[in-house]
Write a structure and sequence with these properties.
about 30% helix; 9 helices; UDP-N-acetylmuramoyl-L-alanine:D-glutamate ligase; 4-stranded mixed beta sheet; alpha/beta; 9-stranded mixed beta sheet
Length: about 300
C-alpha cells in the first residue's frame, strides 16, 4: 500500500485534558456541581487532528508518557494522522485542567509533563520527508531543551526549502521568553497565527490593523485570531481580508485557535487564495467552539 503524500508536519504538545464546566457559581471551600470530561488534547496534537479531519495529509511529532502513549497514538491514527510519538519512561503525559466559564471562555492550569522532554532524537530530519509545510506550536519554544531540538528541525526545513508556520500558542509563554527572542527564533516563517493578546505582546500595538502591519514586517502572511470578532488576515503584498465571526452557540472555546490554524492551512497548502484560507479558518474554529474539547468529534 502506498502511503499518501504527507503535506503538513506538525510538532507540538500532546496532553490529557480535564475539562471542568461548573454548573453554577463556584462555591469556594465546598462543592460546586460540575460537568467534568476527559479528552485528548495539546495544541500541536489538536492541530494535527483538525487537519486530518479536513482531509489534509498530516504527520505529527511529539512526546507522551509511556503509560498512555499507545492510547494517544491510536486516537490520532484513527483520525488519519501519521503519528510519530515518542514514549517517555520517566515522566507522565502532560495534563491540563481546563476551567470553562459560562460564556465558553477557558482558563488553563498546565503541567506539560513529557512534552518538556521532546528532544532531537524525537525529531529526526526524516520527519520532514515529503513535507509541504512544517507547522509548530509555540509551546516548544518556551523551554531550552525543546527549543534546541525544534530550532534544529526548523533550520533543516528552511535549508531544504520546506515552508514553515508558527502559532505563538500562549501569551504567558511569550511573556516569559520575551517578544524579541520569539521573533528571532521564528525568523523565516511564512505564516504566523497569533490571537489578539499575543499580537499585542509581540508588537506593542493595540488595534488589529496596527498589529498586522507590524507583524508583516517579519512574516509574509499574518492570520490574526480575533475571537468573537472573527479574524483579520493579511499578506505582505498589501492584501487584507477581514472575516466576521459566524453565528454559533459557544459551548467551549478549547481548541478553537488550533482549529483555526488547521482551517487556514488546509486550503493554503493546496494553493488556495487568502480569502478562501481566511473563511475556512473561521468556519473550522466555529465548528470547534460548538463542542466540548479541543479535537474534532468523530461521531
Amino acid at each position: 500500500m502506498t502511503r499518501p503524500l504527507v503535506v503538513v508536519v506538525v510538532v507540538g504538545d500532546v496532553i490529557n485534558d480535564i475539562i471542568l464546566r461548573p454548573q453554577g457559581p463556584i462555591d469556594v471551600g465546598t462543592d460546586t456541581p460540575s460537568r467534568i470530561e476527559l479528552s485528548p488534547g495539546g495544541s500541536g496534537a489538536n492541530q494535527a487532528a483538525w487537519l486530518a479531519a479536513l482531509h489534509t495529509p498530516v504527520r505529527f511529532a511529539g512526546r507522551a508518557g509511556a503509560s498512555d502513549a499507545a492510547h494517544h497514538r491510536a486516537v490520532l491514527e484513527q483520525l488519519g494522522v501519521d503519528t510519530w510519538l515518542a514514549s517517555d519512561q520517566d515522566v507522565a503525559t502532560g495534563t491540563i485542567v481546563v476551567l470553562v466559564s459560562p460564556d465558553g471562555e477557558r482558563s488553563m492550569f498546565t503541567d506539560r509533563g513529557a512534552n518538556r522532554n521532546l528532544g532531537a532524537a524525537d525529531l529526526p530530519e526524516r520527519v520532514l520527508e515529503d513535507a509541504g509545510l512544517l507547522h509548530i506550536s509555540g509551546y516548544q519554544l518556551f523551554e531550552p531543551g525543546t527549543r534546541s531540538a525544534l530550532r534544529s528541525l526548523w533550520a533543516t526545513a528552511l535549508s531544504t526549502g520546506v515552508p514553515t508556520s508558527v502559532d505563538p500558542a500562549s501569551v504567558a509563554g511569550l511573556r516569559a521568553v520575551g517578544r524579541q527572542s520569539f521573533l528571532e527564533w521564528t525568523s523565516g516563517a511564512r505564516i504566523v497565527f497569533p490571537n489578539l493578546d499575543e499580537g499585542r505582546l509581540l508588537t506593542g500595538r493595540d488595534e488589529p490593523d496596527a498589529i498586522v502591519s507590524a507583524l508583516l514586517e517579519r512574516y509574509p502572511v499574518v492570520a490574526l485570531k480575533l475571537g468573537s470578532a472573527g479574524a483579520l488576515v493579511a499578506a505582505a503584498d498589501g492584501r487584507r481580508v477581514p472575516v466576521a465571526a459566524q453565528p454559533a452557540q459557544v459551548v467551549d472555546s478549547t481548541g478553537a485557535g488550533d482549529a483555526f490554524c488547521a482551517g487556514f492551512i488546509t486550503p493554503w497548502v493546496r494553493g488556495g487564495g487568502l480569502e478562501e484560507c481566511a473563511l475556512e479558518a473561521v468556519t473550522t474554529a466555529t465548528r470547534a467552539i460548538g463542542q466540548v474539547g479541543g479535537r474534532p468529534r468523530t461521531t
